[in-house]
Amino acid sequence: MSYRFSLAATVCGAMLFAGSPLLAQVAPPPSIAPVPADAAEAPLPEQPLLDIAQQYVDAYNNHDLDRIVEFYAPDADVVNAKGDHLIGRDEVRAALEETFAENPSIKLSLSIESVRFVTEDVAVEQGEVISFADGEHASTNSVYTIVHVRRDGQWQVEYIRTIKDVPITGYEHLKPLEWLVGDWIDEGADAVVENKCRWSDDQSYLLTEYSVIRDGEVLLSGNQRIGWDPQANQIHSWSFDEGGSVSEATWTLVDGRWIVQSNGVSADGTSGNMTRILEPDGPDRYILTITDRLVGEESLPEIQVTLVRKAAAPQSAAK
pTM for the complete prediction? Predict the structure, then answer.
């Protein structure tokens, strides 16, 4: 279930720097998308976070800086779509002041796609935000991830990462990775690794879902979005696993192999990085090597698996 808030900015600092937008003739959506009748009968566990989103909507679109910064944790960690890194309420406030000065009519619309509770006091929110730089016409579109933390009974924004929407022309840049589209599997001695990849509806992104299964139990699962970064002139990806970890990576083709250098942070705040190497071996097989693995100060061993394309399920014979 998704939830939509008109002219919202729960992504906060993520969309603060609109800069020379190409305006589209799109009117802002209704304030909140209608809730199905059956969903209204019982309180939703994520309702407090939905209420906070709506409150942020009102504060942002009134340009109420004092109210806006109250939604952030004192040490909030925010990276916007341009890569600007903000730490703490003071830096967020300064960025907002600049945005409102440059765009006095700016408004935002937010659509929450999911809210997932890692613990009772930690929740991961994912969704989409549209910026209306002139207050009426859609100018930029981004997807985001927010980590909310509840302390002393109060939910606050601890962490935000935002991905700038990639134009349809990004397809041409991603075509060299089109061979990844399909279902892949590695049945190793210890676990089964599955990876499913497809194009987004507008072919702006490659979307993957992955899982690691042992003895019928899912040990790890998550999703990844691969797109074209027009500012860095490079393929970029963003990954989110079910445990609350998030990471981003750059992709470079070197001598027929894709070098994917990534860094991220776990749900408990531990930083990490690694290098993945994807080496195609024919149309239906590739070798994945994961090296230079560092979690906190701990160095982890190299991993190598071979994934093969799963055969399409046979169709039932016609009667």
Answer: 0.51
